[in-house]
Amino acid sequence: SVVELVAQRAREFPDEVAVVCGEERLTYGALMARSGRVACGLLSRGVGRGSLVGLALPRSVDLVVAMLGVWRAGAAYVPVDPRYPSERLSVVLADASPVLVVTDVADLEAAEGVLPDIGGDDIAYVMYTSGSTGTPKGVVMPHSSIVNGVRELVSGVGVSAGSLVLAGTSVNFDVSVFEIFGGLAAGACVEVVADALSVVERGGWSGGVLSTVPSVLAELVSALPVGSVYVDTVVSAGEALPGSLVTRVREMVPGVRVVNAYGQTESFYESLSVLGNVGEGSVPIGRPLRNMRAYVLGPGLSPVPPGTVGELYVAGEIAQGYLHQPGLTATRFTADPFGPAGSRMYRTGDLARWNEAGELEYAGRVDAQVKIRGFRIEPAEVEAALLAH
């Protein structure tokens, strides 16, 4: 489980700073101690293995403590970002029906006790995305998928013990899981901020890894002068990354490593591309991470030749499906005819092609879904809201 990844680092570096937010600091040892007390508090309030717990906390050190505490209680968290529209949060809470919603960590901390063992098949979170039926759908993600993605991303991105990782993504997005627990799994220090644009308000930032969506990255590049940002790696995810933006990032931060990460909530991060020289067009989304598979398929689920556009399917460490929606799960998560017996693949709805270098290139959508500042938007959900009036 992800818990064990963090626990390993805490045993190695108990006195190193794990999480920082403003003036607040928490060492690895203190993080494990506090999250353990939170877990015991949750267990005493009826939370059990497999329970869902809502998290409605401001961005702070306590948010990370709560996330880890929920996992250590054997439960899964449902992110309920208090900055989101109340109507949407109401829909999420009604569908997930969490045992309780955490709004204050201090009230939960109890005396330490025996905590359950957590395995890879246990659910880590249920994260809601825009739904084509007009209602958000909850993606059920097990620990094993996160562990695989985190381990692969940590090595691919270059996060290591002592690094400083910026965590500016809302917990309603799985990028936040990489930022926080990718950093903690590597023994790094995670700095929690309001959002990535807080770097502009501070006049710059120095650290190991900064990740954000391309549209926000473009704002950072436009607003910050050369020499105000010193980072080892910039990770882009959530939208198509233009080659021209990569060039601008390298002009602002000479020598920076630029990584283009691709995936869906249903597959965490599925592929990764460490970029070399790029042209003006959209850059490749890379190759599948270890323990992941990618297929570009045409009619009848037949593989298309390299260079030919088809629909992208991913397999391996993917989500279990959609909460309370077996029909939709069966439609999007289908049997994998190319993998081991009993394995499944996820139909992404993205169009892609294999290039000559053996990397995937994004080529659009098979439907009307769009991305706005990294948000996955189904026009049908907008339509449903309009028709309600």
Apparent shape? globular
Radius of gyration: 20 Å
Strand order of the largest sheet: 10-11-12-13-14
Helix content: 25-40%
Q: Mean of the pLDDT scores?
A: 93
Count the strands?
22
Distance between the termini: 45 Å
Largest sheet: 5 strands, mixed
Number of helices: 11
Q: Which segments are poorly predicted (pLDDT under 50) over 5 or more consecutive residues? A: none
Category by helix and strand content: alpha/beta
The fraction of residues assigned to DSSP E strands is 25-35%
List the helices and strands and how they pair.
Blueprint: H1 2-12, E1 17-21, E2 24-27, H2 28-44, E3 52-55, H3 61-72, E4 76-79, H4 86-96, E5 100-102, E6 123-129, E7 137-142, H5 143-157, E8 164-167, H6 175-185, E9 189-192, H7 198-201, E10 205-212, H8 214-223, E11 229-236, H9 243-252, E12 257-262, E13 271-274, E14 287-288, E15 292-297, E16 310-316, E17 321-322, H10 326-332, E18 333-335, E19 344-354, E20 360-365, E21 370-372, E22 375-377, H11 379-387
Parallel strand pairs: 1-9, 3-4, 3-5, 8-9, 10-11, 11-12
Antiparallel strand pairs: 1-2, 6-7, 7-17, 12-13, 13-14, 15-16, 16-19, 18-19, 19-20, 21-22
